[in-house]
Amino acid sequence: MKKLLLSVAFVLAAFSNVNAQQLLSDDFNSYTVGNVGTDLTGTTAGQGNWYTLVPAGGNNSNFQFVAETGRGNVFSIESTNQPPATAPAPANYRLATKMDFNTALWNTKTTGNNILKVEYEFFTGAATTSKAVHRMAVSSANRAIGGLTYVPETRTLAGLAYANPPGGSGPGLYNITLGSTPLVLDANKWYKVIFYVDYTTNKATWQIPDKNINVNFDIVSVATEAPDEISFLAIAGTGNAMSSTLKYDNYMVSAVNNTTASVDDVISTKFNIYPNPASDIITISNQESIGVEKVSIVDMNGRVVKTQSFTNQSEIQLNISDLRAGVYIFNISTKEGNASKKVIKK
Question: The Secretion system C-terminal sorting domain covers which part of the protein (predicted)?
Answer without folding.
Answer: 273-344
